Amino acid sequence: MLKRLALGHVLLGKTTVVLGLRPKPDGWRQVVGVGLRNEHAKFGLSAFGLIPPPEEGAIAALARFLRTEPDAQVELQHSRWLTERHRTGAVDLVELVFTTDGILAGLNPHLDPVRPTPTPAAAEQAIVVVIDAYNRTRASPEATRPIELERLVTSALANHPEAERFARRLLSAVCVSLDPTDPPSRFTPPDFRTRRGLGHHHLTFILRPAGETVDVWAVAHHTGTDGVPLQEMLSRLERAWGVEEARFPTPDEWSDEPRACHLPGEREVYESLSFHDFTDLLALRKRLIAEHGVAIPLGCLLLWLLSREPEFAGVKFSNTVDVPPKGWSERDVDLVALRPAEFADLPSYARTFAAAVEASRVRTGPTRQAVCDTELLPPWLHRRLLETNPKGVADTFGAVGLSVVKDAKVFVAPLSDVGFPGGFIAVGSADLPTTDGVRVTAITVKGTKEQAATYPMVLRRVLAKLRVPEVVG
């Protein structure tokens, strides 16, 4: 019944597009707005050893920096089935002050001067109400929490229009909080669940001061931005402030147990962080490119090698592709979903992989068509199809996801509300310096507790095999 209903909506939607009654669908923003709404679906990126301007301090300097960033000039609007992004042209930053047990104790706004300043009385009244609403909803699933927050705020301030307007402005602000930590825990991502934003902006920053420097963690709702654009923003912040080089752990120095990254009522998801030496992997890639004369992206080679391990035998993988803007279409993401086991050898797989990446970049790949069709569905029907057809979702988008952001330090993976039953793997730079001269890569995994614990061990096994002669395929 649902499939027939969906087919009818798609056919009707395509007809209205042809007749010019609605814009041509692009797909990606609705996919993430329907299917990546909960806390574990957010992703995180990091920058270490930044040197904020001493005359301003980190938070005031961050507020000034964000006002120059177009991707920060947005807000999120939430309904029951869909989260949407809207451009605003301004950026407010709100510092959240937490107690040690995660209670929100205070708000310090850093307001964009292009917007009007509220009266002190209205601002104070709005802040009190927003703090109370935050604490009453701080354990709610992220898909519903912003709606609850807004309802509580508007109800409490229904007879105070200026305070209500300012409270809504606070809810739509970028949020930042301080999270002091011990040096040995520096590279462990913060528990984002205890430093959540106010729900109506896609960015939340967590700062870890260390003397004259600060480590910056940026957490993003996927509806607002994607991994590569956010990494580019952090790279601009590094250049603006300056950086004291960090030294990352070697694989032997690092130990990490999976930890929960979901909230009550959400999909049960765990995450892990591990560090790996890709020296032999990069050398193998260089040799294979020379031997076969075919481009082999790092992610392509990594997936090929993983597919030869029993834990990933026969798996269909999905690799993210950064898609440039074209015409009326904004920059976004597409997915290349392939099953390595269907290819006779690595060169064949690599050629197909490269062709699929190129199709994704010009918006003609099969997953692009699939997500464009889903944009023609009512959001409630889109969500129901995701929940009731797990096999179809895995056939289209893959069972295990991989995303490589080549300039990232620690890149915390997202995991959608439904789909990707095999979890998601996030890979950062292969050139992170360590104290002993080795260069390492940080990898995070999100999935079941077993997946988060097992995948790093599988990767270590794969890399160990590269140290002895082996036919790769």
Describe this structure in words.
By secondary structure, the chain is α+β, with helices and mostly antiparallel strands. The protein has two domains: 52-211, no CATH class; 251-465, 2-Layer Sandwich (Chloramphenicol Acetyltransferase). The protein contains 14 helices and 16 strands. It has helices at 2-18, 28-35, 58-66, 120-137, 145-156, 161-171, 227-241, 279-292, 298-307, 346-361, 366-375, 379-388, 390-397, 449-465; strands at 43-50, 74-78, 83-87, 93-98, 104-110, 174-178, 203-210, 213-220, 259-260, 270-276, 317-323, 332-338, 400-404, 424-427, 432-433, 439-447. The strands form three sheets. Strands 9, 10, 11, 12, 13, 14, 15 and 16 form an eight-stranded mixed sheet that branches. A six-stranded mixed sheet has the order 1-8-7-6-4-5, with helices on both faces. A hairpin with a 2-residue loop joins strand 7 (203-210) and strand 8. Helix 4 crosses helix 6 (161-171) and helix 5 (145-156) runs antiparallel to helix 6. The longest helix is centred in the N-terminal third of the chain and has 18 residues, at 120-137. The protein is globular and about 70 Å long. The two termini are 45 Å apart.
